[in-house]
Amino acid sequence: MTQIASTPTTPSAVGAGQPGGAVSTATSGAAERRAQSRRHYFTGTPGRMRLMAAIASALCLAFALAGFTGLRGVQTSVDRASANTEQVVRSRAIYADLLAADAAVTNGFLVGGLESPASRKTYDEAMARVAENIATAASAQEADGKALAALNEEVQNYAANIDRARTYNREGKPVGAQYLRIAGTDLRAQALPIADAVATANEGRAEDAYGIGAPGWLALGTGLVALGGLLAIAVWLARRTHRYVNLPLTAAILLVGAALGLAAWHVTQVANTLNDARNGEYKAATALAQARAAAYDAKANESLTLIARGSGQAFEKAYQDSSAKTLDKLQELVNADPAQDSLRSRFGAYTVKHSAIRKADDGGDWTGAVKLATSDAADSANDTFRQFDQAASTVLAQEVKSITTAFDRIGGWLLSWVAGGAAALAALLAGRSMSRRIEEYR
Predict the structure, then answer these.
(1) Contacts (Cβ under 8 Å, ≥6 apart) of 283
(2) What is the C-alpha separation between 49 and 59, in angstroms, rounded?
(3) Which secondary structure element, helix H or strand E, spans residue 108, and what is its range?
């Protein structure tokens, strides 16, 4: 029986003549063309133009982001400097008012149980300002919260000791003077160091805030890089195409240049304002605030020397130290603001009155010295000191107002939007700047 051999069929033989094979070949060809198109997208002159357009757009976008955040950061620096300056003045006022209260109450004790309504009023007003400023300072600066809480507790202890001293003083008991000395000693040993630490910490924050900071300078640096990059790309394009004006790219250059100029003007203005304030009104205000506090301390020690009746040498030395510090700080004020030289002569007039008080006491006329120290008549020691204090308070308010007014004039929140928006528009124009030139190569 004869067998007929069958010829095997192969998959390739079958597929070659069927529609499925044609589809596979077409698909692989399309994929190859797409891959080749991607490989050549950034090659040749059209490819390099696409690359340059992408770089130009990226530079503009980087400047838009850096310019917006940088100018916002500059304005934040101004706000922070203003807030910290107010906190410095507020904390120094707490320190000064505590000593003002102590000076008033010690002077009132010199007349025995007949504390004058004027000295009581001065004490009450000073302590009210202390309480108000502690509360305001605590809400204004969270970092000062714990220290101010401790200070408030010490202030309450001081006030309690003063109340005890007044009670015994009205009864004519010598223990009243002892409570007064305890109150004054604890004030200087406990409360005032805390107040000084708070003020010093805020002075450090204020000094740090009196500068533009990295964001402002980064914005300018990014703008310079963006402008330089756009100009370099424009030169490259002109040499490549021999056409020297590309409208979208030129518009992008102008927008970036305008935004950079606006940012540079604003940053320079803010830097100059902050520098002038730091070396002028701010330095004057801090020096004067410390001078007022030292003057109150001197006034309190003047009374404590008399209360000690012959054994107050330590208080007189404290007076001399505080008086010298007052004059030193007033000289710092004059160095920062030469127009305020009159305060030194006003305090000098008070020191002359103090010398007369000491002359009477050292000469054995304690009663006469007390009369000189407690009199509120015109040209008395109290009146002369009051004139100095009122003048110093007025000048301090003027210095602080000058700072806040200068900061308010800066403005600048809108500039960040203008500069950032201009740079963002430049990015759109730069991204489309090569389209027509690329079309010419097709």
Answers:
(1) 332, 335, 336
(2) 15
(3) helix 44-109
